[in-house]
């Protein structure tokens, strides 16, 4: 357990704010889907907030991340604006990608988010290439590659981890082990040890409770600092859980995971409740303050949604724009 | 005749062939208990067990390669590739390994496998889950490509695909899984390389693949109201391609629009138009015309996505122009 002091209060409150923002964002996205206001499907990050926030709070906005199909959390944690995110989810012109990418392709260049990805494991090369660039130019930026346990099945990951290790690249592979890839348990998809996969390349690996912001953040601070010094790459398995279905439409889940299991994580292992507990038990915040915090974020998210709902769609002339750079 | 959904028809085709031949098996992501995200393979694992209905990790190139190896050594694998866009991941195994074995071995090795996958936009799935990549596959010598248009077609073509001794890729429009249609109880097969003339006409031939067949049929109805008689043809398989039926139709009508949901440039439509040009040129009354998806990655926004694919109204408009000679 990390020793926290009053110096940590602003950081913890900031993390609390970010985690609640992600949860609110996702609850609104789900509602947009259920009320048929959002085109297509989306994958919720709820339950995994401490992973994205714990890691991204250790990064500067000039550091890079690559994200996944379950990417809203990474995007918020890296500093994105809710209005522009909702606009993207609704296919509006003001969205981060002018409505062309949607939920699965949000990228926020201004904050170093190189983009969500609809190909499982598809961003492993991109992340490692960004780290290669940092090394080539002598920059001290770090790149974090987020991916799920399911992506451990993809060969690309092993090719690039090998090169990252050979060339000591400043990249951190963050495997969010929420125990399922779609409707299949990780034990049925990944043989042997998860961490040994990276150890085989001589990469230093860690495993951490992904529900515990304090633990994730403490580890991330250390590894990011070391990666800046050229000690990378690193590999982390973060044990976590997704609260919703694989995507918003996956509502009947009992054939692959039990209601009891879901309930256990939501009530006993919730990252937001766990951080609130740290804040309240140390008397660094009262429950009432946290509730007020939450109410303000709720309002901010609701405003962003109505803003996005009213925002215009892109003009038809945009359809063949951006195929090539002019 | 009973009406069943596309998913049921595909499910029956797989189940019947697995009963018929115990070397047939299916592998892919979430094909067992989950029955695929589109619920197409539901019930198969209960009947055939996990030895023949294999849930794989998310390792497309790996399991595609294993299917090649299993088929070279006597099995008849069905590879379930969840989205057609993942063709890019399996391309080496498909093109360099599966497609060439028979030829490279001087006819000694065979690769009797089927890849069942999908295609089609307008599902708001964005650029990496909306592509129609059949032209890419049809470009490779040694692979057959089926493009079913209805539940009846998918069952008959899938059964033929499984019995074929070559690698076959069958593309299903992902918006069709719930489509209902008449499918006989009795066993039947639809041979490859035989296009289906759906309706006879005299003024123009509308040639479609997959769901573009419905687009052509709808366009024909619009044209009928305007007094234009369109002949509609379902290509069924683009490799092998039934040139004869298409050429004979165009010789009769003197005009054709070819509609396919892949990108228009270097696409299925280009290939068919080129062959018609070579064989029916002297019978033509108007330029042979292609209609494919726009040459852009499929955008997410509904406001843009719907512009990228051919529609019945668009096909009908174009047909009117060709028939009346208006530019
Ligand atoms: C290459 C590839 N194969 C399959 C899919 C379909 N798919 C989307 S998400 C997913 C599961 C991913 O599991 P995991 O990596 O654990 O991420 P999680 O959804 O749990 O966040 C699958 C199979 C895909 N998008 N890309
Ligand atoms: Mg997972």
TrEMBL record, chain A:
Gene3D superfamilies: 3.40.50.970. One of its GO terms (molecular function) is pyruvate dehydrogenase (acetyl-transferring) activity. Keywords: Oxidoreductase, Thiamine pyrophosphate. Residues 17-315 form the Dehydrogenase E1 component domain. Its cofactor is thiamine diphosphate. InterPro entries: DH_E1, PDH_E1_Alpha_Subunit, THDP-binding. GO terms for biological process: pyruvate decarboxylation to acetyl-CoA. This is Thiamine pyrophosphate-dependent dehydrogenase E1 component subunit alpha. The lineage of its organism: Bacteria, Pseudomonadati, Pseudomonadota, Gammaproteobacteria, Oceanospirillales.
Automatic annotation (TrEMBL), chain B:
Its cofactor is thiamine diphosphate. One of its GO terms (molecular function) is oxidoreductase activity. Gene3D superfamilies: 3.40.50.920, 3.40.50.970. InterPro entries: THDP-binding, Transketo_C/PFOR_II, Transketolase-like_Pyr-bd, Transketolase_C. Keywords: Oxidoreductase, Thiamine pyrophosphate. Residues 4-179 form the Transketolase-like pyrimidine-binding domain. CDD domains: TPP_PYR_E1-PDHc-beta_like. The branched-chain alpha-keto dehydrogenase complex catalyzes the overall conversion of alpha-keto acids to acyl-CoA and CO(2). It contains multiple copies of three enzymatic components: branched-chain alpha-keto acid decarboxylase (E1), lipoamide acyltransferase (E2) and lipoamide dehydrogenase (E3). This is 2-oxoisovalerate dehydrogenase subunit beta. It comes from Marinomonas hwangdonensis.
């Amino acid at each position: 357990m990390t020793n926290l002091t009053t110096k940590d209060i602003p950081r913890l409150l900031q993390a609390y704010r970010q985690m609640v923002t992600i949860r609110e964002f996702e609850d609104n996205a789900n509602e947009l889907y259920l009320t048929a206001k959002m085109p297509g499907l989306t994958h919720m990050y709820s339950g995994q907030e401490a992973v994205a926030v714990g890691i991204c709070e250790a990064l500067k906005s000039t550091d890079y991340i690559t994200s996944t199909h379950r990417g809203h959390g990474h995007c918020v944690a890296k500093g994105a604006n809710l209005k522009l995110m909702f606009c993207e989810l609704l296919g509006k012109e003001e969205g981060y990608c002018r409505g062309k990418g949607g939920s699965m392709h949000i990228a926020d260049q201004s904050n170093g988010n190189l983009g969500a990805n609809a190909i499982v494991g598809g961003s492993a090369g991109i992340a490692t290439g960004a780290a290669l660039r940092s090394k080539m130019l002598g920059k001290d930026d770090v790149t974090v590659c987020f991916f799920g346990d399911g992506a451990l099945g993809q060969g690309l990951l092993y090719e690039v981890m090998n090169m990252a290790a050979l060339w000591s690249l400043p990249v951190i592979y963050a495997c969010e082990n929420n125990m399922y890839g779609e409707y299949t348990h990780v034990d049925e998809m990944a043989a042997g040890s998860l961490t040994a996969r990276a150890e085989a390349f001589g990469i230093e690996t860690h495993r951490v409770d992904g529900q515990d912001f304090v633990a994730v953040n403490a580890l991330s601070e250390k590894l990011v600092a070391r990666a800046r010094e050229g000690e990378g790459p690193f590999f982390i398995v973060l044990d976590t859980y997704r609260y919703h279905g694989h995507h918003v439409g996956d509502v009947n889940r009992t054939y692959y995971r039990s209601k009891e299991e879901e309930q256990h994580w939501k009530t006993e292992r919730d990252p937001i409740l766990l951080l609130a507990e740290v804040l309240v038990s140390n008397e660094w915040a009262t429950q009432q303050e946290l509730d007020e915090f939450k109410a303000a974020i709720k309002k901010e998210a609701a405003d962003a949604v109505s803003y996005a709902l009213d925002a215009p769609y892109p003009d038809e002339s945009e359809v063949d724009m951006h195929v090539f750079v002019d | 005749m009973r009406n069943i959904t596309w998913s049921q028809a595909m499910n029956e085709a797989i189940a019947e062939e697995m009963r018929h031949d115990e070397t047939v098996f299916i592998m892919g992501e979430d094909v067992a208990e989950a029955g695929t995200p589109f619920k197409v393979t539901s019930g198969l694992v209960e009947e055939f067990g996990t030895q023949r209905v294999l849930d794989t990790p998310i390792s497309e190139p790996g399991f595609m390669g294993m299917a090649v190896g299993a088929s070279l050594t006597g099995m008849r694998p069905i590879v379930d590739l969840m989205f057609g866009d993942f063709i890019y991941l399996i391309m080496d195994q498909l093109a360099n390994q599966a497609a060439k074995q028979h030829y490279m071995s001087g006819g000694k090795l065979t690769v009797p496998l089927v890849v069942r996958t999908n295609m089609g936009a307008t599902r708001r799935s964005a650029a990496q889950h909306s592509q129609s990549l059949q032209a890419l596959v049809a470009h490779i010598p040694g692979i057959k490509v089926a493009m079913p248009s209805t539940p009846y077609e998918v069952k008959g073509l899938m059964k033929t695909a499984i019995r074929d001794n070559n690698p076959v890729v069958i593309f299903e429009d992902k918006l069709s899984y719930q489509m209902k249609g008449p499918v006989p109880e009795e066993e039947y097969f639809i041979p490859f390389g035989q296009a289906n003339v759906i309706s006879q006409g005299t003024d123009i031939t509308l040639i479609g693949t997959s769901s573009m067949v419905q687009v052509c049929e709808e366009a024909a109805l619009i044209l009928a109201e305007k007094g234009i008689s369109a002949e509609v043809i379902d290509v069924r398989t683009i490799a092998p391609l039934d040139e004869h039926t298409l050429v004979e139709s165009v010789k009769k009508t003197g005009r054709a629009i070819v509609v396919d949901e892949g990108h228009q440039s270097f696409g299925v439509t280009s290939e068919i138009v080129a062959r018609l040009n070579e064989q029916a040129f002297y019978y033509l009354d108007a330029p042979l015309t292609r209609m494919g998806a726009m040459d852009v990655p499929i955008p997410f926004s509904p406001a843009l996505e719907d512009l990228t694919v051919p529609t019945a109204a668009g096909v009908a408009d174009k047909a009117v122009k060709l028939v009346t000679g208006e530019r």
